[in-house]
Records
---
Amino acid sequence: MKASTAERWLSLFILPSLNLLTAFFFTALILLITNVNPIEAAHYMIQGAFGSQEGWGYTLYYTTNFIFTGLAVAIAFHAGLFNIGGEGQAYIGGLGVTLVALGLSPYLPALIVIPLSIIAGALFGAAWAAIPGYLQAYRDSHIVITTIMFNFIAASLMVYLLVNVFAVPGEMTPASRSFPDDIKLWQWHEFMGFFGVDFDSSPLNISLLLALLCCYGVWFLLWKTRWGYEIRTVGANPDAAIYAGINPRKIWVLAMLLGGALAGLVSVNELLGVQHRLVLGFNAGYGFAGIAVALMGRNHPIGIILAALLFGALYQGGAELAFEMPNVTRDMVIVIQGLIILFSGAMEFMYQPLVRRLLWRWVRAGA
């Protein structure tokens, strides 16, 4: 094996796998301490996530959101930025979807309103991310601080709008009125039924295809276009980028625009695909989980798909586990996520020295 190939295996497969196994090991210890059989718990989680068509539907529904937010973090990371504002960007994206869906549906057919709603969700998310991007590029404000604060601003803004602007008179629920019946995405069972294939009903809808298309688009942009080369160059070394004639400030703003647009597409899955109206808290922590998805996926679209599928399975499997084993709450899923983030993020390179020595011995032995 060549040294470059060994390093690639180390970074893309060996270290993530070891980190994931370590997280699961400590999860098993916590379950044992709480008098829960970890093997039985794992069985319920796997069965709940993958044991039926409905389970697959819920798992892939969650996966769709994690793909969007994971890509939003990854594309900024390649430019040397840490976008942890996906939560707010997804929330504001929902505002764009709602304004178009409710505002244009009386005047335009659904075939036009739905694509415009999708575009609006992306544009509103991009606009919300553009402000921290601009502050980072031209005012030297730290992107982590500004994106965190913009999450809180977005949450407060949406509470105000849902209570004082969009609220339906006579209803206590902080939500807008429902979209017209034809302003919605195909559910997956409807989509499969079009091809004569039976599939159980679930929240999964065709925004999954949009998420996969975005994965391809991000891969093509980053590794096959000039813009992508400039993004990766700025992320690797801003000083060298300037020497090569690249303006890092413009690239930082561009990366945040693209990241915000991707995060805004969470609203497409949630509002056009499932809720069919703007509701409070529909973003439900997907933006923060997207950070872990990007870290686990090594900021590569293929890795993000796999990591998003894992987190989708944890969400759905955790719900099944809490149902089958009442002494295990949904908080256990948060514990598992936290351990994965710990070992895939903060302690990402814990095993690197040992594994690298072993790999080099193997490479020398093969030579």
Note: The longest helix spans residues 3-33.
---
Amino acid sequence: MSTFDNHTVLVTGGTGGQGASHVRAFHAAGANVLIGDIDATRGASLAEELGERARFVRLDVTDESSWDAAVAVGEEAFGAITVLVNNAGVQNPAALIESTDRRTWDRILDINLTGTFLGIKAAAPALRRAGGGAIVNIASTSGIGGTAHYAPYVASKWAVRGLTQTAALELGRDNIRVNAIHPGVIATPFITEPAAGSDAPISDFYSPEPFAVPRLGEPGDVTRLLLFLASPESSFITGGEYVVDGGLLLGPALKDQAA
């Protein structure tokens, strides 16, 4: 029996670099997967690739009615939803706070923070109907330390930390666990391609050479932890924060030392 047999998992931002990795892994572990995204072309293609037990649902995470519809589609297609992965997120163009326009600020917080809030709000009753489950919010190492030029993104991810812990307290007695993962620099288009309005990708500013583990992360590094936190194996873990960054937040590592 696979770990997620008879489970239904909703992954937002499900067609992106990390999102698609999460979707494929849950599906391989036996889950029914709902691929939530605004990109219908890529979403339908991924669902077709996976075949049985996979379905694309168009989901605008900033729209409460879109969330309600996605949950309803999932329950109708597969039955009770037992796992929500709040993975959808966007980055702002690099700019000083004083040069950041209000529309950019509002858009980043609307997707990264309000989208996560609306996801918890919409999914909690469904998980409760299922008898419990897990919510995992994908935050960022930028939610643990400040990052110059990325104030909207940093603010949104710091706020997701508090939202995660509050939801864990509210939902624990319903057998719903809520945790957060903080990825570092992961080699996906989110990092390796410029954000809208930017001239250079984030990866241009983050050499992994000083990291204790001197490489960029891979989506699978995050996915493997995600599957553990969503599974019954982590049944005594809630309100937790888990960093996947190769040592980025630790600071520069020592160079290789001669024996």
Note: The chain has a mean pLDDT of 93.
---
Amino acid sequence: MTHPPSRKVALITGASAGIGAVYADRLAARGYDLILVARRADRLQALCDRLAKAHGIQAEPIVADLGQADDLARVEAILSTNDNLHVLVNNAGIARLGKVSQRSADDALSQIALNITALTRLTQAVVPRFIARNAGLIVNIGSVLGIHSLPISAVYSGTKAFVLHYSTGLQQELAGTQVKVQVVLPASTATELWDLSGVPLAALNKDGLMTAEHMVDAALAGLDQGETVTFPSVADAGLWDRYEAARSQLFAATQVGTPAPRYQVL
């Protein structure tokens, strides 16, 4: 499918359901044509058809498993050659929750492949073109578990910590350009990820569970307000500022060429 030269295109991964499908609807409502990437062809085509009819946009389905090298390379090629591409939403991700001693190495590697490797390669595919155009937006979906670990989330938390720090480092690299990076860190969100994770959705505290619609709408509101790091469920925005200040103070304290006094042998 070709897109009219005047129309901007958004590519969304993990788009057939949940957060990705809501992003597709909201960006279509903002006038973007869509390239939607997911594994389930039937659901993806149905979503494309519905959004095209509802919003008068073009929506192209790309059936791909981003944990597979060949499929990932196909999507990379689209990102690196589509002149109309203005937005990348790296939403695809998986969680395999459980103690490291009780989960397989494949569970760990599958999370790393999708949550880290795919996100990094797709971002790398668009950054040079966005810089050359001096315009573009990358939205990376992280998690509040990127700043917190549980006994069952060692690998997942590690992958989402990567998403946070990769995104904030890239934001600094792109400072002074019109290329924007937003990292979104949702808490528990009602999506299919949970039932596949080992912790069923029904087991979660309903009072702390956000709908995918509310999560995406909050993230887009944060984007419109100029946020680069968005916690959709956190009311006190100053908490992040204080967290960052403490982190920066801790890092500054490491820049000393001698051991701390408590480690020096008397």
Note: Strands lie at 9-13, 33-38, 59-63, 85-90, 136-141, 179-184, 229-230.
---
Amino acid sequence: MNVATPPYFIGCPSWSESAWRQSLYPQDARTSDLLELYAQVFNAVEGNTTFYARPKDTTVERWAQVLPEHFRFTAKFPGDISHAGDLREHLTAAQDFLKLMAPLGERVQPLWLQLPATFSPHRLGELATFIDALEGRALAVEVRNIGFFDKGEGERMLNRLLLDRGVERICLDSRPLFSCVSQDPAVLHAQSKKPKVPVRPAALTLFPQVRFIGRPELEANEPFVEQWALKVAAWIEEGRTPYVFLHTPDNIQAPDLARRFHEQLLTLLPGLPELPTLERGPEVQQLGLL
């Protein structure tokens, strides 16, 4: 499919939600075809899958075969690297992970290093050594310790370290999620797992990174979506190439939220191309018993 691509990267936390056959994918889509179909609509995806388990090398080869060159897969370092003690003890594992993902070439950028809430400003020396060992690979870092959000010395040191090394600071906006009062199990689960930290819309490099955690009622996200559309439009006009990933509590509505975001951005930058829509085929009729 030859279509114009947006001047920024937009996507969802994953591509493999079976429920998206009700909204994004054809209802008869095979599971093995979902990534290729996803990449016909969105031009980026969060690499959450690699945080939980390393893919087989044959799986990475298959991804490389179906993903277009302009696509971006922000592969997360596995949790046994980012969440298992001193980062300096996992440099060999990190290099092995880079080799595993190598068939994707430039489509794996930036790599994401998501650090736990226990990773405090006192451990910035570990982070500096880890970044330097990657030898210039495009990297973005997400921090969750409150010491990086108090506008004090810890935050200034982090931002300076990242700026000096050309590494982006991932901005997570969980305000919509935590503005939701609900007994929905999906909402409660998300609120128990996602960090509630201040918003830091950093642009330390040409590639700002945004993770937006929305509410399940899509229209309730509009005030937050409008704010981010203004910020992303400004970044694009500055010559930056932002990455924006849209979540909902169970991610069933994530593609719809992503479309809403892009539509809002279109009102600010009318020359942007529309996101493609997949041909979903006729609705499947459920036949009752005679």
Note: The chain is about 35% helix and 10% strand.
